[in-house]
Amino acid sequence: MVAVSDTVVTAREVRKSFDDEAVLESVDLTVEDNEILLLMGPNGVGKSVLLSCLAGSGRPTAGSIDVFGEPATARADTTSFLLQDALCHGKLTGRENVDFYRRLHPAFTDDWQRLVDRFGIDGDLEKRLEDYSGGMTRKLELSIAASIDVPIYLYDEPTAALDLTTIQTVHELFREQQAAGKTLVVASHRPMDADVADRIAFLATDGIVATGRPDDLLASLPPILETGTANTNALATAIEGEPYAVAGNVRGFLDEDRAGDSRDTDAGGRDAAALVADAAAATGIETDDLALVEPTYTDLFNYYTESGPDQDEEFR
Ligand SMILES: Nc1ncnc2c1ncn2[C@@H]1O[C@H](COP(=O)(O)OP(=O)(O)OP(=O)(O)O)[C@@H](O)[C@H]1O
């Protein structure tokens, strides 16, 4: 966990439209020096568009983005941007793609050699990218983006197409970059990427709806009820939003107005048995079929992107 420090990126009331189609609406976001900030949100909400604005390659339609106190567009030397799908050229070999970026970027280093070795694609450098698998392409792109020696890295879906072991390797790489003093913004809709984050920011259609440390955000969730899929409709009568499937069961966020509230909120305590009993009475589900579960990052993602109410909170 990094200490609280200086802000390196500030986005204020950023809007972005394509033709007349609004993608980003009033996005306010800060990135602190040396943190790993995870930008989460559902498909199509505008994470890539926001990253391109932070990188200075996309211009906001309204609002401002400062990087180290200057407009993002004036600071191309400060960021390395891993694009979602478009970093490498399919007709070039792995080595030729690396050479392209080595010539293009003055801050390109030899780190790529160590990284392709670590990702296990060092033997594939003479193949054309069009013959790489999706995961191999991502590994090469990560090797290239991480080899550029700049203060800020913007990674768009870095773990997409990667297997679980490789995701751990990517997380290690991120921690090493942080230990070397770098700042990382990682856009993802994979809850497991929260493992590596100092803070998470959730992007929804009306802007950033919550930011905070992962543990604080988890602790801020309402009680989560879980039951069998046969009880999906009944569960829906006692929760906020829609039930969602998790490992063969369904879950939902308890709506205290609908299910009754047995919590001793003054003392901050939770009487799980009483809560379950209230929810069972409200839904008609047997208490044996209803459980209160510990929140996971998947629940957190669902709350802020699918099932939860509008939120506007900052946990620091
Ligand atoms: N150059 C463009 N012209 C027109 N529309 C665009 C352009 N770039 C992005 N969009 C639109 O902006 C919206 C947000 O796209 P974006 O790629 O930022 O979403 P995302 O949150 O990164 O999604 P995903 O998780 O699927 O990668 C989409 O509706 C997309 O079609």
From TrEMBL:
Check the record and name the InterPro entries matching this protein. AAA+_ATPase (IPR003593), ABC_transporter-like_ATP-bd (IPR003439), P-loop_NTPase (IPR027417)
Q: Which keywords accompany this UniProt record?
A: ATP-binding, Nucleotide-binding
Q: What are the ABC transporter domain coordinates in residue numbering?
A: 9-230
GO terms (molecular function) for this protein are: ATP binding; ATP hydrolysis activity
Q: Which CDD domains match?
A: ABC_DR_subfamily_A
One Pfam family, short name:
ABC_tran
- State the protein's name: ABC-type transport system ATP-binding protein
What are the leading ranks of the lineage?
Archaea, Methanobacteriati, Methanobacteriota, Stenosarchaea group, Halobacteria
